[in-house]
Design goal:
Layout lengths: L9 E7 L3 H14 L4 E3 L8 E6 L6 H21 L5 E6 H13 L5 E3 L7 H10 L4 E3 L21 E5 L1 E2 L10 H4 L4 E2 L2 H13 L4 E5 L18 H8 L7 E5 L8 H9 L6 E3 L7 H6 L6 H14 L4 E8 L6 H14 L3 E6 L17 H25 L4 E9 L5 E5 L5 E5 L8 E9 L4 E5 L18
Parallel strand pairs: 1-2, 1-3, 3-4, 4-5, 5-6, 7-10, 10-11, 12-13, 13-14, 17-19
Antiparallel strand pairs: 8-9, 15-16, 15-18, 16-17, 18-19
Helix pairs in contact: 7-8, 11-12
Amino acid sequence: MTGTDAATRKRLFLRTWGCQMNVYDSARMADVLAPLGYAPVEAPEGADMVILNTCHIREKASEKLFSELGRLRDLKREREATGQGMVLAVAGCVAQAEGAEITRRAPWVDIVLGPQTYHRLPEMVARASRAAGAVIETEMPVEQKFDHLPEQVASQGITAFLTVQEGCDKFCSFCVVPYTRGAEYSRPTAAVVAEARRLVAAGAREITLLGQNVNAYHGEGPGGRAWSLGRLIRELAEIPGLLRLRYTTSHPRDMDDDLIAAHREVPALMPYLHLPVQSGSDRVLAAMNRGHTAAEFLAVVDRLREARPDLALSSDFIAGHPGETSEDFAQTMALVERVGFAMAYSFKYSPRPGTPAAGAPFQVPEVEKDARLQALQALLRQQQDEFNRSRVGLVVRVLLTGPGRHPGQVAGRSPWLQPVHLAAPLELVGQEVPVRILAAHPNSLSGLLAAGEGIPASLSAEEPAPA
């Protein structure tokens, strides 16, 4: 075991809520703590350190956190009764927004840290072991955490996340991200490419580039000139062994010509894009401070589909934003009908303290928000089912990521991010293989391995499909 031995090994349990960036942050927290002897475990029972990495976007985030902290208090007391200890930390966006409230309501928490400070975790652990009371680190530091993270990264598996941009300057009326993640920052291209190479060397075959507004990326490139996300994608696509690239989350205002062209010209860039719109009403979009109209969003969609005809789209929607009328909601439903989404996330509006919408007049009654959300989700589920069924009968390239739930089964991902299950030998994990899709399920596909490039006929379940 590198850096320590079994006698000094410490157990680290990380629970992650929320977005893919939180998943990435949790992985990097584990990397930061590894030199101290911490190794990840699957449950908090018996852990020497527990970190709850929180998300402030979803409804009732704080309530979920305090409920979990109550359970962990009992585990911590049990360990203390046997002469052992548990360092309990709360990280992420709820920690950033509600640090003082966390220590007031849960004084057994040892460390509260915002998403910009986890590179200082070893120092915080040392301080917590000496201090009486919680260590709170929720300031937005001048130095960038990425400059202080260890170069060594643990394997994330066949698919990996890589943060390239963080923070947001958009200040949507409903969103806390600018207050919890800070201003937009783009990592230098050399650092991103170097980390991508390390992830591929550790086994990654697909990398998803992450950012709160990832397509606003403008990292410093060679010679000091800023690179766009499209330019970065072209560079990453040249890494040997990297088969696929994705990126999320995007903003319609930042979808420039070079990025749209990359969808047409870079085979490794998968034909699936998450592009939040939130509403189909220009009046509501203005109240949300989105900075675009419904027509402008649709124009971006049309340009993307012209560049990549097989592109599938997902999106985000909020039902019942303050001031939304029945006519506004009807315009959202019309936009959904017009675009046709392969998948979408939809929520009824819930106020976030400190955001402009929280105190806005004309709050929509809960019963009306519920009714609108149910209608919206029914339409989105119908579109997702239709998209999944449209894959049946096709032979598609599937990246196999690991064993399935049943003996002899392997799981993978289609180019459109759908889970795919099929019978195949485990030695094919990590490869892109041709799969004939036989059935569509609510959230996945199933198929048969087809003979094709790199797949001997003896391993396939059928002859290759005719050209």
